[in-house]
Amino acid sequence: MREASGGITAEQLHAVKYWSCDIGGETPTGRWQILIEHEMTREGHSVEDVLIALTIAAAAMFNSGIGCWVVKFEYCRPLARESVGVRL
């Protein structure tokens, strides 16, 4: 591991830290919310437009998370699903 990480550049390290979402920091969804707010504010969008974009993005991200769990439950854990009598 040390050998593999020995040649990392400062730019690569910055990218890793930026996207790491460490414990105590924001979640991946929260990271995207911050980016959306920052970029839209920088571009001069109204508060209402920013709120609409954040709401739509949050709904999409949370719905995709639910979809991932449904697929995981259906295809990766069929025995657990069948043992409790759940039908999707």
Q: Can you give me a brief rundown of this structure?
A:
By secondary structure, the protein is mainly alpha-helical.
Work out the radius of gyration.
19 Å
Q: Cα distance, first to last residue? A: 42 Å
Number of helices: 5
Sheet-strand content, in percent, reads under 5%
The secondary structure category is: mainly alpha
Sketch the topology as an H/E string, one letter per element. HHHHH
Report the average pLDDT across residues: 81
Which sheet architecture does the biggest sheet show?
none
Number of strands: 0
**Helix share bin:** over 70%
How would the global form be characterised?
flat
What does this structure look like?
The structure is a single chain. With 88 residues, the protein is an all-alpha fold. It has a domain of 58 residues. It is built from five helices and no strands. The chain is flat and about 55 Å long.
Topology overview:
Layout: H1 2-5, H2 10-19, H3 28-42, H4 47-76, H5 78-83
List keywords for this structure.
74% helix, mainly alpha
